[in-house]
């Protein structure tokens, strides 16, 4: 029995130790809970003097005091902005004016070169045209005199030259640039601008006469193929696209008076229309020379 008592005593001591451990754990848990409650209370309490000072400093930093401007300061700022915009606008106008003046002089110099090219072309064409008009006059005279069969070599030459002429093609580079680029505005001199437009407006008159010349020449050619042998005509044309005279007394396809009179009649119409073209070219030549003189005077251009 003593062993059972010892076992009972040991169990009793173990139970006491466990109870003591539970009490210690409960005390620790209570202390933690009290600490957490204390922290919560501290957070709910109003801020201390130090925290208030920090808050005030932060408020001053984020919301600085701004001194209000008076009316004169606002007026001065507005005036400065206005002056800056105005000066920029004036500077841009000056830049555009300088650019326009430079472009104007460039166009004027180029136009003078174009006009000089036109004048040279007209002079050359008038010289050739006057000579060919003489050949057409000679053809008409031969038909009128009735001696065509005895001088067919000359008749072939006059007949071939009557249908040859050169259309006028002006150098419109500068004027086209003015029209297409809206650059007539840079021509400051009104007299020069008006003369340029008048010169350019006259050119279509020559073009209209040349269109009519094509019609007249076609009618003349219809009669020429009935009179002249095309083989001989072809033999007269050389590699340089000019007409050579032939020798001998080659035959005509037709030499009756009625057919030759019809041929001479259309030759007359070619003379009349080509004379009108030449007269128009002479007028354009005068306009061009006057325009060149005016431009050189107004823009102080020196002869090269």
Give an overview of the whole structure.
There is one protein chain. The chain is mainly α and about 300 residues long. It has a domain at about 95-300. About 80% of the residues lie in helices and about 0% in strands. The protein is built from eight helices and no strands. It has helices at about 1-45, 50-60, 70-145, 150-160, 175-180, 190-225, 230-235, 255-300. Helix 3 (about 70-145) crosses helix 5 and helix 3 runs antiparallel to helix 8 (about 255-300). It is rod-shaped. It starts with a helix and ends in a 6-residue tail after the last helix. About 15% of the residues are buried. Residues about 1-10 and about 30-45 have low confidence and may be disordered.
Summarize the structure in short:
With 304 residues, the protein is mainly α. It has helices at 2-44, 49-62, 71-145, 152-162, 173-180, 190-227, 230-236, 257-298.
Q: What is the strand and helix layout of this fold?
A:
Layout: H1 2-44, H2 49-62, H3 71-145, H4 152-162, H5 173-180, H6 190-227, H7 230-236, H8 257-298
Helix pairs in contact: 3-4, 3-5, 3-8, 6-8
- What does the radius of gyration come to? 56 Å
Average pLDDT across residues? 81
Overall structural class, as computed from helix and strand content, comes to: mainly alpha
C-alpha geometry: rod-shaped
What's the SSE pattern? HHHHHHHH
pLDDT < 50 stretches: 1-11, 31-45
Largest sheet: none
Per DSSP E runs of 2 or more residues, the count of β-strands stands at 0
Please report the distance between the alpha carbons of the first and last residues.
153 Å
Proportion of residues in extended strands: under 5%
- DSSP helix count? 8
Percent range of helical residues? over 70%
